[in-house]
Amino acid sequence: MAATGDRVRAVNVAALDALDFTLDRNSPVPLYYQLAQQLEAAIKHGALAPGNLLGNEIDLSVRLGLSRPTVRQAIQSLVDKGLLVRRRGVGTQVVHSQVRRPLELSSLYDDLESAGQAPTTLVTRNESVPASPCVAAALGIAEGVEVTVLERLRSTHGQPVALLRNHLPADLLELGTARLESTGLYRLMRAAGITLHSARQTIGARSATAAEALRLDEREGAALLTMERTAYDDTGRPVEYGTHVYRASRYAFDFQLLVRS
Fold it and tell me: Considering the domain boundaries, does residue 195 fall inside one?
């Protein structure tokens, strides 16, 4: 078993050995930053995949002809971004590339799965509550009418990415916690015969509260992306109102802009 682990580790480290780093010692750009940028590019472009090991700081500094503090600073900057993680007994390991999600009516679960990000879900709330004025307005119902509220923590490769809160009409469909933790909400809607047609969506940003920082493994005050969305079915009925927050260090929206003549 140990021999197999050694072979896997050798393959993982070989991914780093195959990279060609170009460091300009005459540039005003600090060497640690040059190294960090090239490592980040390798992760985002797939040359370094989740699970690949960087080896230890001493080996990397010898290979690149850099001081150990320079290598440590480069690695720490990527640890802070959530691209690398230090694991005791394993070393520095690639966690993921940043999740880049197209700006369209799609499920976060589906997008993460399509990108090979191995999504997992922890349901922290699944109950019926009276609709607040904001929720009632979004769903087109009277204030105080019962709605289902869901709160979920979505992760990839064991690292949290987003806190999701959804309100749905109480009679829309059955939503057991076990099913919600095994797949995405929009998949469950489609399986129940609900055809999602369009949505109204607002994207913003703010700082993480202490509670959000704890759940998202961020520092208090870290940048978060926010999304507020009301989704409609093919009859024009509002079927879901979502208010979500995402780690800005691990998540981005992609826009395609068209020029009108």
Answer: yes
Residue 181 corresponds to which amino acid? E
Same domain, yes or no, for 103 and 75?
no
Tell whether 226 and 103 lie within a shared domain.
Answer: yes
Same domain? For 149 and 81 the reply is: no
Which segments of the chain are extended strands (E)? Answer: 84-87, 91-94, 99-102, 119-130, 146-156, 159-169, 196-207, 223-233, 238-247, 251-254
219 CB neighbour count, 10 Å cutoff = 11
104 or 260, greater pLDDT: 260
Give the residue from 75, 94, 113 where a domain finishes. Answer: 94
For residue 75, give its domain range: 2-94
H helices present in 85-140, as ranges = 108-114, 133-139
pLDDT single digits (tens) 126-147 = 999 999 999 999 999 899 999 9
Residue 208, pLDDT score: 93
| Residue 100 confidence (pLDDT) | 53
Chain centroid to CA 114: 13
Q: Determine if the pTM surpasses 0.70.
A: no
**Beta-bridge mates of residue 99:** 251
Burial of 245 per CB tally in 10 Å (0-12, 13-18, 19+): buried
